[in-house]
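Worked example

This section walks through a single chain of length 327. The input is the sequence exactly as stored; nothing has been trimmed or padded.
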Amino acid sequence: MQSIDVYRLPGKCPESNNLKSLKSPRSEAAAERDAALAAAGSALLGPLGAESGVARAEDVADEEVRLAAELQRRKELHGRRQQELQQLRLQRSSEAKRHVAEEEAVEEQLLENRQLREALQAQLVRQAEEDSEMRKEEASAMGRVEALRHMIAEQESALKAAATQRLSSEEMLQDEHRKATELEAKLERQEVRLRRLQQEDQERKEREARRAMLEGALSDLKGALDELGFAGAGDMEEHGKRPPGTNLLLQSSLLDAAAQSLRAELARAKNEGRDVASSASAVSLIQDLRERVRLEPGWVYRVHLGETVGIVLGNQTSSKQKLGRLP
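Given that input, the structure is written out below as tokens.
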């Protein structure tokens, strides 16, 4: 803050009163001096009058001359005093004007100081308000900072809890993954076992079907052989009844060819692992035997059964031949 200087106004200064009373004491002193001179002159003229009139006249003349000279001197002194007084008055007037100007300057300075003081007071008030607002903002900011710190602490605790939960979840996932892997391995083992059981069951069913087909094929073969007349050949020979030579030769040839072909098919199917196919081949063989072996008297028959060839001779020869090949 700026310092404020206080000046005393010239109107209220004691020197102004001295300036107003400066003229009267000097005039009174001059009048008193004139009166004293007149009294001294009269006192001097008194004894001279008593002695002689001439001397007195001379003395009076001298005294008048002296008094005139003194009066002249006093007038000159009074003129000089008047000039000095005039100069003093002019000086006092200039000093008064200067004091007035100084007073005006002081008043202006006081006004400026007052305005400056008011401005400073307003600035101080604003500064105080700003300080108050700043303190409020600082308090609010500190509150927000504390709230943020509390929030950050809560978030950190939540993150730690989440990290712990994540670790536990990862452990649980690893445990579940391990269990899933074990279950997958167990399931694979069960699937392998199931496939093996299914394969075994399928093989068992195939063996049963193959056994049934073989049994059926054997029964069909037996029936076919019975139809060809091999079943009663021994009985007829025992009773002395001999079948015709042509039928006997045909039957023996067909029997040998069928047996050899059937053995070859069964061996090949066993080597290739085709039991069902061999059974089907046996059945087809029997069916071909039934269809192709039909004797007609008077013809020559050549029957091919695999690699075996059976030749049948009839009662008559002819250029006609019937050829057949079994698979």
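What to look for: The CA atoms of residues 199 and 205 lie 10 Å apart.
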